[in-house]
Each structure stands twice: as C-alpha cells, then as structure tokens.
C-alpha cells in the first residue's frame, strides 16, 4: 500500500513540475493508449481505449501510436489520475491532438470522462465507426465468421454488466449480436469451447 501511494505521489509530482512550454520525450509505447515518458513515467491517452495487445487490433493500435509519438517530444494538458491511480492527459505533438488521431485511425474506442473536449473526440470516434475502419472493420467487428463459417456460436460481453454470454442460432438475440474481437469477444465451434473461454449460455437460449 505504501509503495502504491509513493508511486502515485511520484507521478503527481512529475506532472506538477512539467511545463507545457517544454516538450517531454516519449521513450516507449506500451499499447495503443499508453506511452512511456522520460523518467519512465507511464501516461494514458484520455478518452482513448485501445485493444489489449492479445486482442484483434491490439498490435495495429500500438504501431499506429508508435508512428505518431515514439522518440518525439510531446506536450500534455488536462492531466489527472484515474480511479486506479494511472496518469492520463490530452497529448499534443505540435498542433496535433494525438488522442484525436488515435480515434480517427479507428484503432481505438472513445471513452468518456466528461470533459470539455468530449464532443469533439466522440464525433471523431463515431465517424471512424461509420466508415468501418480499424477495429470497426470486418477484421474485428463481425456479424458472421468468415474465418471458419462452421463455427457459429457468438461470444459476447454485455456492455452494462460485463457478463460474458454466448449465443447460438435459435437464441432470440443471435441475429442482432455483434462479435467485437477487439474487446475479447470471439466465435466458437461448440458450447464447451465457449464455456472454457469464460462465457456462459444466455438465459433465454433454448436447450439443445
């Protein structure tokens, strides 16, 4: 507990001592929404949620962010710590808002924390989704299994409860269920496979 408190204090002091008139070097990129600054301080992009590296689009998101900021000096503003003590900010390279560029690329989702720039970034993300690019393309956002058409069980995570359910043809919601692979959702050939992956049968699906 003391170590965590000390880490949060160090991060807070780092940001308090930084001036927006001076650039900060990006020495690493963890994934599509997290960078490492000089001093080995991690910084997340506010309003941006990129796939985990093991999920669909994770590597593409990381590569996109690397091309934007790696080994370059950035400025950041609207700094804060999230509920887990992780530092977040709006990141700029010159006049370019990197948070917006990641959403524009389609390799990240918009995540709201209710600030003044929310509308601009949400609109950017909505446009990427409408244009079906990045994680919103058929690579990650799927209504049918093009890789293995015989495997038709849909593993899906409820956005409100985070419950992981699976649906098969005959379930009432089946036709409307989207498999968003960037969120860890997937297709399965059998119910046993879906259950092994942590999904349970949706309650209103018929017995088989």
What is the name of the CATH class of the largest domain?
Answer: Mainly Beta
Task: Return the average pLDDT rounded to an integer.
Answer: 90
Quickly count the domains.
2
Largest pleated sheet: 5 strands, mixed, barrel
Q: Gap between N and C termini, in Å?
A: 49 Å
Q: Report the radius of gyration as a whole number of Å.
A: 20 Å
CATH topology of the largest domain: OB fold (Dihydrolipoamide Acetyltransferase, E2P)
Description:
The relative contact order is 0.12. A five-stranded mixed β-barrel has the order 1-2-3-6-5. The chain has a four-stranded mixed beta sheet with strand order 13-10-11-14. The chain is 26% helix and 27% strand. The longest helix has 16 residues, at 2-17. It is elongated, with a radius of gyration of 20 Å. With 208 residues, it is of the alpha+beta class. A hairpin with a 2-residue loop joins strand 6 (87-93) and strand 7. The chain has helices at 2-17, 58-69, 98-105, 118-130, 191-196, and strands at residues 24-31, 34-37, 41-45, 48-49, 73-81, 87-93, 96-97, 109-110, 141-142, 153-157, 164-167, 179-180, 186-188, 200-201. The termini are far apart. The chain has two domains: 2-136, OB fold (Dihydrolipoamide Acetyltransferase, E2P), CATH 2.40.50.90; 142-201, no CATH class. Residues 2-10 have low confidence and may be disordered. It has five helices and 14 strands.
């Amino acid at each position: 507990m003391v170590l965590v408190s000390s880490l949060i204090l160090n991060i807070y002091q780092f940001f308090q001592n930084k001036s927006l008139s001076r650039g900060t070097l990006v020495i690493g990129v963890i994934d599509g929404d997290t960078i490492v600054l000089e001093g080995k301080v991690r910084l997340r992009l506010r309003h941006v949620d990129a796939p985990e590296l093991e999920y669909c689009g994770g590597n593409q998101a990381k590569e996109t962010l690397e091309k934007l900021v790696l080994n370059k000096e950035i400025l950041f503003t609207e700094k804060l710590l999230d509920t887990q003590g992780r530092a977040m900010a709006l990141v700029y390279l010159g006049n370019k808002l990197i948070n917006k560029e990641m959403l524009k690329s389609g390799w990240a989702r918009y995540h709201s924390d209710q600030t003044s720039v929310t509308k601009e970034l949400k609109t950017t993300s909505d446009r990427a989704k409408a244009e079906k690019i990045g994680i919103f393309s058929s690579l990650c956002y799927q209504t049918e299994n093009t890789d293995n058409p015989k495997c038709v069980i849909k593993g899906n995570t409820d956005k409100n409860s985070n419950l992981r359910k699976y649906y098969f043809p005959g379930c009432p919601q089946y036709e409307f269920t989207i498999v968003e692979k960037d969120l860890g959702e997937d297709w399965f050939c059998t119910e046993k496979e879906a259950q092994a992956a942590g999904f349970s049968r949706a309650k209103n699906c018929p017995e088989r």
